[in-house]
Task: inverse folding
């Protein structure tokens, strides 16, 4: 080994190693502290978003590593580096071990691996580029936390990270330039040129404002959304699963106070006639609509979906007179996971309606029944349980209750709602539909049918007399639409949840609603519409689920509460499937679905907030103007993108259109700037305007005036850069400008302007 050190090659290697290690050592303590702060913020953000505890061990170890690395920054630290390498290999092995069990959603496993590698790396950061690696790791951890975050708690950490990142980048840039603080700067911190706090604050506000502005106007096109299928940890199933029982914690069986039975609609603790204030009473095999009460609002789910929609839970086919039940509750089908993945495939009915694939991820925040919410027509499910059940009404059931922290993903083929096609749907229904979705208690059948036909006949007579139009409500779709609207406008919901009397044993809910109470509670409207449609031969059923909830534009998730649960009517159209109608007052007649355009959702919400402060006429006018502009803008973008899917001719046409549009846009921008410049020059005093025109002309020739030059200095230099005739005119203009600006003289600017124009004409002629 000693011989090696005496060789020229060994001596060169030893000198090079020492020189490189000493030359690149980073001595700035503030930079090291700020980099450590960024790493800690990234770790804390991951903990907040994923509800983990990485910070309890990662933060102390990172602080110790940063201190150790600073004091040992000029040493080789070969043993420490060897131990770090071994530790990184162990962390990688542990990651692959976790990967096998959680391969369907590896974000948290990757974040944990990154934190472990950063902790090890913190013990060997002698150089500035090593600190640069740590900055990048902190930024990646913040990005991972952003994908995991479901609440606004992440926002303060993001703002704090931005506030720390700005001075970190300033110090990093100074380090790259080799700038070091002077002795005076080290003593007098307030006058240090390393930090201009006013500059940092202004930049922070500008970056924040630009970020929020871009976030608001950024189009949110579903086609550009990432497809990910997060699933929580696997569920261990104990015993066989038949799928026949529905476990709603809000209901109890007789003699069972644990709240895990199917129940019959009695409230918690056997309190008859009252709704449990935490759980929706309709999520059960039976729905007793004779219950009264209201729920205490609480968040139950957060949903990330490519489209807004009604999170469907289950449907009922048999009307009992005071509620609903699933008549074929015993006829369920169980579906198992694929042995190598979380995927469960579901059969889709054959329908002619065009559909759109929508990916939804459900994050359960509060305990729910073992009923699985989805958009309509799910085709694939990534679920933590080994098996699920499907009932005859399309409802999905889990082997266990949906508990807090559960995550699953669903792919649905949601049909488009084409009013023209549905209006032409046949009224020849298959026997399987007639047998179950036209059932009405015979005691009220005739009375409800007569009332329904009377409502429809009145509409037809009023339309003919008012518009002299002979068209009437002939299609099932138009009848369902009108009856839902009629119930909204002619019946009311009592303000008091206990305002209506309980139904007696012989009373019927629909009959009491239509002929006695002139209204009822929200779900009663849907029951009445369903029975009215059945009375005139249109198959319908009651469907229960959750409204979309409140959309949070910052997290991109729908916040769903227990109070968002309600029931509405589903109507069957042969060859097109089931479509929903909502007769509840203050609800949209057609529930939101894939037809809702959320491309500019954040901008729309901001406008709604602004519109709340404006008078109604102004709001209406602006809505019409901007609505027309945005509709044309969206159509133009859709048409342009569609060109590229029409073969080579479409691609060629798209390129020509894009190039032409870009050229015209550039030309328009140039002319706009020229107009602004002319407008600015006209507002200036004549002598100032002539001087600025001269400076602009010389700048176009590539001989612009330096900001540090005075007008007279520039005039002297112009003799070296321009022909003598031109330089003389420039000199005269500069002399006149100085005498006018600083001497208070009034020059003959018209004569100077005439000479300048003649000079320009001469130059142009040449």
Result:
């Amino acid at each position: 080994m000693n011989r090696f050190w005496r060789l020229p090659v060994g001596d060169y290697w030893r000198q090079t190693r020492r020189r490189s290690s000493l030359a690149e050592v980073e001595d700035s303590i503030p930079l090291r502290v700020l980099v450590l702060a960024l790493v800690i913020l990234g770790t804390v953000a991951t903990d907040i978003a994923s509800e983990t505890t990485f910070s309890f061990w990662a933060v102390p170890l990172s602080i110790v590593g940063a201190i150790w690395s600073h004091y040992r920054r000029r040493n080789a630290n070969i043993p420490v580096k060897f131990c770090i390498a071994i530790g990184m290999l162990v962390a990688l092995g542990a990651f692959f071990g976790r990967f096998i069990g959680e391969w369907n959603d590896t974000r948290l496993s990757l974040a944990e691996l990154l934190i472990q590698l950063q902790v090890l790396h913190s013990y060997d950061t002698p150089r500035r580029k090593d600190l640069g690696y740590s900055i990048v790791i902190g930024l990646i951890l913040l990005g991972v936390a952003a994908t995991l975050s479901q609440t606004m708690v992440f926002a303060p950490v993001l703002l704090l990270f931005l506030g720390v990142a700005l001075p970190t980048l300033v110090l990093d840039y100074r380090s790259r330039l080799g700038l070091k603080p002077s002795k005076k700067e080290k003593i007098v911190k307030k006058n240090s040129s390393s930090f201009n706090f006013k500059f940092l604050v202004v930049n922070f506000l500008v970056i924040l404002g630009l970020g929020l502005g871009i976030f608001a106007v950024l189009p949110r096109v579903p086609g550009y959304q990432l497809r990910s299928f997060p699933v929580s940890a696997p569920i261990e199933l104990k015993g066989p699963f038949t799928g026949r029982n529905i476990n709603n914690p809000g209901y109890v069986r007789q003699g069972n106070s644990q709240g895990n039975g199917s129940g019959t609609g009695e409230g918690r603790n056997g309190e008859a006639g009252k709704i449990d204030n935490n759980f929706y009473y309709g999520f059960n095999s039976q729905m007793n609509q004779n219950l009264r009460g209201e729920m205490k609002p609480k968040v139950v789910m957060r949903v990330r979906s490519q489209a807004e929609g009604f999170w469907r839970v289950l449907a009922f086919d048999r009307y009992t007179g005071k509620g609903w039940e699933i008549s074929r509750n015993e006829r369920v089908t169980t579906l198992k996971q694929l042995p190598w993945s979380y995927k469960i495939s579901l059969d889709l009915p054959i329908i002619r309606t065009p559909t759109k694939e929508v990916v939804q991820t459900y994050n359960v925040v509060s305990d729910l029944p073992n009923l699985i919410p989805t958009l309509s027509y799910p085709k694939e499910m990534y679920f933590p349980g080994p098996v699920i059940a499907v009932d005859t009404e399309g409802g999905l059931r889990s082997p266990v209750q949906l508990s807090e922290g559960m995550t699953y993903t669903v792919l649905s083929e949601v049909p488009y709602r084409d009013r023209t096609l549905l209006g032409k749907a046949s009224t020849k229904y298959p026997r399987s539909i007639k047998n179950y979705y036209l059932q009405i208690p015979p005691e009220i059948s005739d009375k409800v049918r007569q009332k329904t036909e009377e409502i429809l006949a009145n509409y037809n007579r009023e339309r003919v007399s008012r518009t002299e139009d002979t068209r009437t409500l002939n299609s099932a779709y138009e009848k369902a639409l009108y009856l839902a609207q009629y119930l909204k406008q002619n019946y009311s919901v009592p303000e008091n949840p206990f305002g209506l009397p309980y139904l007696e044993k012989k009373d019927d809910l629909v009959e009491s609603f239509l002929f006695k109470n002139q209204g009822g509670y929200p779900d009663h409207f849907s029951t009445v519409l369903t029975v009215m449609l059945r009375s005139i031969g249109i198959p319908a059923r009651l469907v229960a689920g959750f409204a979309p909830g409140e959309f949070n534009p910052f997290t991109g998730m729908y916040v769903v509460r227990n109070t968002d649960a309600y029931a509405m009517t589903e109507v069957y159209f042969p060859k097109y499937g089931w479509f929903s109608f909502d007769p509840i007052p203050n609800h949209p007649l057609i529930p939101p679905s894939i037809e809702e355009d959320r491309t500019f959702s954040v901008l729309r919400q901001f406008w709604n907030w602004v519109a709340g402060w404006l008078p109604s006429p102004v709001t209406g006018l602006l809505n019409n103007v901007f609505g027309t502009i945005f509709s044309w803008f969206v159509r133009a973008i859709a048409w342009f993108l569609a060109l590229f899917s029409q073969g080579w001719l479409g691609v060629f046409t798209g390129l020509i259109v894009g190039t032409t549009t870009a050229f015209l846009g550039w030309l328009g921008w140039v002319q706009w700037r020229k107009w602004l410049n002319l407008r600015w020059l006209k507002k200036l005093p004549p002598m100032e305007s002539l001087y600025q025109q001269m400076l602009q002309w010389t700048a176009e020739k590539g001989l612009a005036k330096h900001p540090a030059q005075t007008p007279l200095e520039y005039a002297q230099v112009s003799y070296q850069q321009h022909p003598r005739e031109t330089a003389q005119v420039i000199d005269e203009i500069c002399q006149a400008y100085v005498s006018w600006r600083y001497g208070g003289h009034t020059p003959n600017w018209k004569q100077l302007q005439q000479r300048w124009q003649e000079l320009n004409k001469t130059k142009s002629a040449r």
User: Anything to note?
Assistant: The CA atoms of residues 219 and 724 lie 57 Å apart. DSSP finds 23 helices and 18 strands in the chain.
